[in-house]
Amino acid sequence: MVSVGRDDHACGFWNRRCVCVTPSPERSKFWGDKAPEVAIVEGETDFLCAACEETNTIRAVFGVSSGAWSDAHAMAIPEAASVIIATDADVTGDKYAEQIRGTLGKRSVYRWTPNRGQDVCDAGGLSGGSVT
């Protein structure tokens, strides 16, 4: 699923409302009997980094540009899911993480922070950080 909104920007094309997800978390066949893990990362490059990372966990990854997250995206995540929010490690990313957390109801939610750098790509993937 990809939803894109386009805005003109002084420098040319600017993609301000992009949401990418793979695989779709609402597909129960994918999850089977396991409670899913869902990672929400900020930006398209962090999405690609997290989505391509090898892991022993069955994980869906949402890549959201700043301001693109909505209640509809939260509703696509099963209530039994563990959710890792990995927005950028700065003031803006922290505010965005709190906004996202507010839409997730009673799901188990964890905040990811990088061991180095500011985001998932800087840390070499989600495995390059820790959750609290």
What does this structure look like?
By secondary structure, this protein is α/β, with parallel strands linked by helices. The protein has a single domain, classed as 3-Layer(aba) Sandwich (Rossmann fold). Helices cover 22% and strands 31% of the residues. It contains four helices and nine strands; from the N terminus they run ββββαβαβαβαββ. The strands form two sheets. Strands 1-4-6-5-7-8-9 form a seven-stranded mixed β-sheet, sandwiched between helices. Strands 2-3 form a two-stranded antiparallel ribbon. The longest helix has 11 residues. The chain is globular, with a radius of gyration of 14 Å. 34% of the residues are buried.
> Which percent bin holds the helix content?
10-25%
- Terminal-residue CA separation: 28 Å
Q: How do the SSEs run, as a string of H and E?
A: EEEEHEHEHEHEE
CATH architecture: 3-Layer(aba) Sandwich
Average predicted confidence as pLDDT: 81
Beta-strand level of the residues, as a percent range? Answer: 25-35%
Summed up, the domain count is 1
| Poorly predicted regions | 1-15
Large-scale geometry? globular
The spatial strand order of the largest sheet comes to 1-4-6-5-7-8-9
| CATH topology assignment | Rossmann fold
The main sheet comes to: 7 strands, mixed
User: How many extended strands?
Assistant: 9
The SS-based structural class is alpha/beta
CATH class term:
Alpha Beta
Helix count, DSSP H or I runs of 4 or more residues: 4
Radius of gyration: 14 Å
